Give the backbone structure.
Amino acid sequence: MTDQRSPAAAWEQALRELPLTGSGYGPPQLDGAEDADVRYRVEDTALGPMVLAGRRDGVLVGCAFALGAGGENQVSQVLHRVAASVSPRVLRGPGGAAGRVVDEARRQLEQYLAGRLRTFDLPLDPALATPFQRSVLERLPEVGYGHRISYGELAARLGRPSAARAVGTALGGNPLCVVLPCHRVVGASGALTGYAGGLEAKQILLDLESAKSV
């Protein structure tokens, strides 16, 4: 019989059966009496399944692709980053301020991908990022909707003009994809280079913004 579940639902089922080890927590739960420091969900989007994670203070800490550029399952990797950088008390499903910011992120992401939203209005914390990654991510909002910048130009804005490669590596680990627009950073020639969700997803985002910014 053909599986009629949505991609996100299929990922959720796979996660329920996935033993996450070495992180201090067991398989993600749907809900529970124990409160959580982080709530997450896997949502279907026009770009494919994405992991949204919110902290208990109502701040979004994760917006990541569930599938890697090569089609591999990245959900457990995202959750391990959350557990290591924020808290091992991670639960799946709705609950409190964490669940509400995840819901709002899902709503705004849907609006953005439908071309009805240009700027996200969400409380964010790139808590999963390293200090250098943070310094790079903090400059992304300067690159407006429909615009592009090269890795070298972004490195120059950081005062490190020779660090284009390091900037690219930092963006590859962006824990808040789309919301912090690393897709607007391209090669010096304008060519598309690596992207966490794959080059097809990057092209979709750039085409969307190009069409709507006219």
Observations:
- Residues 131-212 form a domain with the Arc Repressor Mutant, subunit A fold (CATH 1.10.10.10).
- The radius of gyration is 17 Å.
- The chain has two domains: 7-113, 131-212.
